[in-house]
């Protein structure tokens, strides 16, 4: 990718006017500024392609023509309508699919989205040509895309420099690797000699094993002769009985192990159940404590600021639950200087009314055992979007509701 040095003398903000073309006609490369010719040459053409079009334009590419000189000559070709036409037609064929995809864009915003998609896929050259020649490309978008391609050329050059540095470092490592390879070869030869010694020792052991096999055959022959003796037969019977007894003992041991494993599994199950019960008991204790504090505030004739709950006119919406408890909930909230609203979660009442209520309340409490999953998810999304306090109660009870109200009062007043 190459950058036109002449275009860098001025700032991008000092843009020259772009030739106006009909909205349905694609722009011509020779009608664009020279800075775009430089970017098109460096982005959309390879060196081999530039040499081919330079030869068509009767520009010599033989001898010691550097890549930079080739680039400068090719940029001059793109500025002339007669010489640039074959190169433009070649790009139209080369990027036909992308150009057709960009033709669906009916606005600069749509072109911006298509450009971003192409950049994310790495199809920068094709998208750059389609953007430059599109009839609906705005001047702002044109210079934005040009700036991005311009910066990508810098990043590409920096990447090449890093690759060259890494190549130099790798070349410096070659002598060290050769030395390491030489040491490895020497170590391999040493290990080979050791293995030869081991093979020789194994051959000696194999010869000895053959001799032992011969002795074993002689011993078996002697055993067969001794088997005809009554004493040996008696010993064999005793051995059989001992083997049977051992097998019976092993069976009993296996049954005992299985029983022990079963008992451990039962014990683990009971421990898990006990932990679950303990968690529930702690939750119930917490709810009971909150309920006792609330009842104490209601029934006490003295002021107790350490347990006093003041909702300060805040509104609490209770969704789901049992209707027979709502009267108690309302009394509890109103005695704490608050307002109470109930909605059954959509069983009988209109779900649309629930969405309307959520915008007028300060907190929402929902029991997990008496509300649908759809209602909970809708409420949770709405509360998160509007910054409302949301609490999911473990069950529909007065103690759980009292605990939820108490927790909301602490959050709303900033208590810890």
Tell me what the structure shows.
This protein is mainly alpha-helical. Among the domains are: 5-162, no CATH class; 315-413, Rossmann fold (3-Layer(aba) Sandwich). The chain is 69% helix and 5% strand. The protein contains 13 helices and four strands. The chain has helices at 34-44, 47-56, 67-78, 81-94, 96-102, 108-121, 124-133, 139-226, 230-299, 323-335, 351-358, 373-386, 398-413; strands at 315-319, 339-343, 363-367, 389-393. The protein has a four-stranded parallel β-sheet, with helices on both faces. Strand 3 (363-367), helix 12 (373-386) and strand 4 form a beta-alpha-beta unit. Helix 9 (230-299) packs across helix 13 and helix 11 runs parallel beside helix 12 (373-386). The longest helix is centred in the middle third of the chain and has 88 residues, at 139-226. It is flat and about 120 Å long. It starts with 33 loop residues before the first helix and ends with a helix.
Q: How are the secondary structure elements laid out?
A:
Elements: H1 34-44, H2 47-56, H3 67-78, H4 81-94, H5 96-102, H6 108-121, H7 124-133, H8 139-226, H9 230-299, E1 315-319, H10 323-335, E2 339-343, H11 351-358, E3 363-367, H12 373-386, E4 389-393, H13 398-413
Parallel strand pairs: 1-2, 1-3, 3-4
